[in-house]
Design goal:
386 residues, alpha/beta, 13 helices, 43% helix
Length: 386
């Protein structure tokens, strides 16, 4: 089987697995304990924080270890909304965000906050000037992802950050960086980001681990009460082994980002060219998208049919976000982009990783063509029925 679902999760670096196993075996002390085992664990945690900070060019005190981006996004969005509710109850996001962001805003709407969902264009990209017009004196937070997890659309986060701060310097800017880190350059300072979330398993780290950048001077209402760990942002005994593994994965991904981009961009170009030649498929990803994600639709066909057809041929791909791939509803992301139901209900996502070669992509292209031809009678029959 060839695995083409790296946007859902990635196989970890061998070095990451070894680091995590070694610390779990040898350094199992509680970092808050006063004895030697606790002190050793605390030193490892401190070093991991420094490595993560270096990868993002920020201060170690601005790094908070989490269980991943879902927790980080909840902490950032709800934490900011609750902490700064005296400033106002207006929030801004888009309708194409990951569920761990989008559902936060839906919950806050139910609690009385006002949320503005800024439109995107046909490629899924926000116009910074349009977003800026929605920023008000009572706007507490804007949240926009760096790279869309379904289509690979890249948001102009630098321009968005600049426009936000020009309109209201007190409005916080949160970026869900899950699909961008390790694939594209990251510059939190020039982006004017106040909050930034990552999940380690998206860049060959462990599942159930991640980080959140909290700019110095920004306070968050703690969603978990009970301790002073992580500068009071996240109570609970720290997972030292996971933190060290996150740091290792971040360092390796950061060092290899340009090489990844150069390699994967060529493979993506091969796929784009072949998919355009297949009349059954309609591309939903643009040329300017992230290097590792390609999304297309096969109108008239349920996406799981093509997924299973490709699996029988030895290739693993997906439909939409792994968090919502088992639902039969049309893609919210594609719908918000203005795609009709036949397109938004039949999306397929291919996502590339370090392991892939030109030969792998050529074989996938052959499999796509074979699957499309074999399923053509099925879509024709459905067309006659409707």
């Amino acid at each position: 089987m060839l695995y083409f679902d790296h946007a859902a999760t990635t196989p970890p670096y061998r070095e990451v697995v070894e680091t995590m196993a070694e610390i779990m075996n040898k350094h199992y002390g509680n970092p808050s304990a006063l004895h030697r085992a606790g002190e050793d664990a605390a030193k490892l945690l401190k070093k991991a924080r420094e490595v993560c900070a270096e990868a993002l060019s920020v201060s170690p005190s601005e790094i908070v270890f989490t269980s991943g981006a879902t927790e980080g996004n909840n902490m950032a969005i709800k934490g900011a909304a609750l902490q700064y509710r005296s400033r106002g109850r207006h929030l801004i996001t888009t309708g194409t965000e990951h569920p761990s962001v989008y559902e936060n805003f839906k919950q806050l709407e139910g609690f009385g906050w006002e949320v503005t969902y800024v439109p995107v264009d046909g490629n899924g990209v926000v116009d910074p000037a349009v977003l800026a017009r929605e920023v008000r004196k009572d706007t507490v937070l804007v949240s926009v992802m760096h790279v869309n997890n379904e289509t690979g659309a890249v948001q102009p986060v630098r321009e968005i950050g600049r426009y936000i701060k020009e309109k209201n310097v007190r409005t916080l800017f949160h970026i869900d960086g899950v699909q961008g880190f390790g694939k594209l350059p990251v510059d939190l300072k020039s982006w004017k980001a106040d909050l930034y979330t990552l999940s380690a398993h998206k860049f060959k780290g462990p599942k159930g681990a991640g980080i959140m950048y909290v700019k110095q001077g920004v306070d968050l209402f703690p969603l978990l009460a009970g301790g002073t760990q992580e500068s009071g942002h996240r109570a609970g005994t720290e997972n030292v082994a996971a933190a060290a593994a996150v740091a290792k994965a971040m360092r390796l991904a950061s060092e290899r980002q340009k090489a990844f981009y150069d390699k994967i961009s060529k493979l993506r170009a091969m796929l784009l060219e072949q998919i355009r030649r297949m009349p059954e498929f309609l591309l939903n990803s643009s040329e300017s998208g992230a290097p590792h994600i390609i999304h297309f639709s096969y109108p008239g066909l349920k996406p799981e049919v093509l997924v299973h057809a490709l699996e029988e041929l030895g290739f693993l791909v997906s439909t939409k976000s792994a968090c919502s791939s088992k639902t039969s509803e049309p893609s919210r992301v594609l719908t918000f982009m203005g795609k009709e139901k036949g397109i938004s209900s039949s999306g397929i996502r291919i996502s590339l990783g370090w392991e892939h070669t030109e030969e792998d992509v050529a074989r996938l292209c052959d499999a796509l063509q074979q699957a499309a031809l074999s399923l053509r009678p099925l879509t024709a029959k459905r067309g006659e029925t409707t």
